[in-house]
Design a protein that fits this description.
Elements: E1 11-15, H1 26-30, E2 36-38, E3 43-45, E4 67-71, H2 77-81, H3 103-114, E5 141-150, E6 160-166, E7 179-183, E8 197-200, E9 214-220, H4 226-232, E10 239-246, E11 259-265, H5 270-282, E12 290-296, H6 305-310, E13 317-322, H7 333-339, H8 341-348, E14 353-359, H9 363-377, H10 382-391, E15 395-399
Parallel strand pairs: 11-12, 11-14, 12-13, 14-15
Antiparallel strand pairs: 1-4, 2-3, 5-6, 5-10, 6-9, 7-8, 7-10
The chain binds NADP nicotinamide-adenine-dinucleotide phosphate (NAP).
NADP nicotinamide-adenine-dinucleotide phosphate binds near residues 200, 295, 296 and 324.
Length: about 400
């Protein structure tokens, strides 16, 4: 701990795990009080500015932001810049060993700290327990590419790929909704290794094919994208350095009676392919319904368009929204939701309904407004319902 710190008694400190953080800057952009900053090495939280609003917790794609310690004196940002890993929880003095009589308060803080973010976004009650952060930059796992297929039509603007990674004998337990990190080879102009990129897993927990130790990703080639071009160009037999798994809240409920509404754009459909395959393989006769609102420019641009047509309506009710079909009005997912408000309302009134939103950051506000309008039309209050659903682990957003 630095000498500049003042001893103020035990207090909770918000920290970022440097081994898991992928330096994506989302937390720094999100923090409303500018408490998060970074240097070439680490993203850190300034204890003097952090007001525990927790706004940064949900947007963090890896969960590295959700770390807490109870400290007698706060770690400074300079301390944190130098870290390669988080320090262990220090011993907090109790009255018995001659310290201040703070043990009850400290115990409460430690318990709160270990319970994570305070419940802003939690996993569904029935979700399986995820394994997270098994591999990191210092200790990645090697996967072998066993497939790389183009998902969009040849004439489509977008090259979206279905990439299959096999883990051989290595353990890589994954749940539907989790993500993995890919380490692009090489280094940047300053000689530093490239930042890890995150991709949602598009296959269910038992593999791309049942009982295989592999997983699938849905990756769109970005014209200037360092990692997306690397992944989209991978050939069968190539090896890839992988970190993760990541994500402990955007998880599929295991309860067959859960209704699952999935709202996505483009490659944001990746986790929902995993959800759908999970139900199809293990809960074919589930009483809970699944419904997807899926937005793309045109049918040719919609990942998994062909296979999706073959999924029976009884398993997955599908609503497509196309924004750039010549001669047709521009339609976004939120427009389709409004157009099917009656159907949405049946689900929104049901306490077994879970909502998942994944895709473009820009869709978030539009989808939220649509849900508010749909609720208003039936005399319901979306803000209060959303709060309840979030607290019950039934409302999940993952947008970039
Ligand atoms: P895209 O092709 O750029 O867009 C898909 C559709 O969304 C288009 O029809 C687009 O319409 C529409 N759209 C644009 N703005 C919208 C808005 N404000 N509200 C509703 N719809 C809107 O999609 P993409 O490039 O595949 O991007 C998907 C996003 O998902 C990316 O940001 C990606 O990072 C994120 N994501 C990916 C994964 C993954 O595993 N790959 C996982 C989670 C999230 P127009 O362009 O015609 O306006």
């Amino acid at each position: 701990m630095s000498e500049t710190q003042t001893a103020t008694g035990p207090k909770k400190q918000h920290l970022i795990d440097p081994e898991v953080c992928i330096r994506c800057n989302t937390c720094e952009e999100t923090c409303p009080v500018d408490a998060i900053t970074h240097d070439d090495n680490n993203y850190v939280v300034d204890a003097e500015k952090c007001n525990f609003c927790l706004d940064c917790i949900s947007p963090c794609p890896t969960g590295s932001i959700d770390n807490w310690r109870v400290v007698n004196a706060a770690y400074s940002i300079d301390d944190q810049f130098g870290w390669q890993e988080l320090p262990a929880q220090e011993e907090i003095a109790s009255a018995e060993d001659g310290g201040e009589a703070v043990d009850d308060e400290a115990a409460k803080l430690i318990a709160e700290a270990h319970s994570g973010s305070g419940g802003k976004s939690i996993a569904p009650a029935s979700a399986s327990k995820p394994t997270i952060n098994l591999y990191n930059r210092g200790r990645p796992v090697t996967a072998t590419v066993t497939g790389n297929f183009r998902l969009t039509e040849a004439e489509a603007d977008n090259d979206v790929r279905h990439v299959i990674l096999d883990f051989g004998d290595a353990s890589f337990p994954i749940l539907e909704g989790q993500s993995i990190g890919i380490i692009p080879p090489g280094s940047d102009e300053n000689g530093k290794p490239h930042v890890i990129r995150l991709y949602s897993v598009a296959s269910p927990r038992d593999g791309e094919k049942p009982k295989t130790n592999n997983l699938a990703l849905t990756v769109k080639r970005e014209p200037q994208g360092l990692c997306s071009n690397y992944v989209c160009d991978l050939k069968k037999g190539d090896t890839v350095q992988v970190t993760g798994p990541f994500g402990a809240t955007f998880l599929m409920p295991d309860d067959p009676s859960a209704n699952i509404i999935m709202i996505c754009t483009g490659t944001g459909s990746a986790p929902f392919r995993g959800f759908t395959e999970r139900r199809r393989r293990t809960m074919r006769d589930a009483p809970g319904r699944m419904m997807i609102y899926f937005g793309a420019r045109r049918p040719e641009e919609l990942p998994y368009f062909g296979p999706l047509q073959k999924v029976p309506d009884g398993l997955l009710r599908k609503h497509f929204a196309y924004s750039r079909v010549p001669g047709e009005p521009k339609t976004y997912v939120q427009d389709r939701m409004r157009a099917t408000a009656e159907e949405m309302l049946v689900f929104l009134k049901n306490a077994r309904t879970h909502i998942y939103i994944c895709g473009l950051k820009g869709m978030e506000a539009g989808v939220d407004e649509a849900l508010a309008d749909i609720c208003r039309s039936a005399g319901m209050d979306w803000a209060s319902l959303r709060g309840d659903m979030r607290a019950q682990g039934r409302y999940h957003v993952e947008t970039y």
